[in-house]
Predict the 3D structure of the following.
Amino acid sequence: MNRRYRKTIIAGNWKMNKTATEGKVLLDEIKASVGKAKWCEIVACVPAVDIPMAVKALKDSRIAVGAQNLHYEPSGAYTGEISASMLKDLGVKYVIIGHSERRQYFGETDVTVNKKVHAALEAGLHPIVCVGESLEQREMGITNDLISVQVKSAICGVPADKIRRIVFAYEPIWAIGTGKTATSEQANEVCEHIRTIIRKQFGARTARAVTIQYGGSMNAKNAHDLLAQPDVDGGLIGGASLKSADFVTIVNAANQE
Ligand code: PGA
């Protein structure tokens, strides 16, 4: 973390978990325990149908609401889809784009990720852009090359003044939901690589202002070490965001002086 130059952001990614009724209980618990966390931004990325409940439950709290996906067209005949302006209208602040599960199960590509980033920015949302390599790709030694392609294509055509509104999340696929966490050094290495890509394209000031999270089995035990790394500016938390005590412990780790 480097709070001097950029925001630390701890975001929970609930994935397809929690009905609105169950989610309300979880948010009430989190809200009650994170009162003093003032050094980091906290986000709950809830299922789309839970959004109205979450916005209401988190009104007057320090916790922002995020979505997990959006469609890139502003409106039209796209049965089952949700546009950026619909999310914005509900009070959503962040939206996860290009999560590896969406790339793997729902045909999301670097091209659709780029379109979604533009749509989110256009509507005034903050995209959380996920990038990451598979185990095979890591073993082939092409992690950095792959991350470069994912990052560069995600931000293709985004004007310099909007880059700071994007949050990047480095999520190695082999660490997601597996209990296998990247070492703090591995996490930092790739987060630093992402910052270097931004620096080369947009300069040092922009690069140092961009928040880059780590995600992949981040939990109450390893969060402190991961967040102590200079280029790891927060976490995108799956499993551990579904338990209020674990999530709050991670928020507190991000809140260390
Ligand atoms: P995990 O998920 O923390 O359960 O590994 C992270 C994510 O997919 O964003």
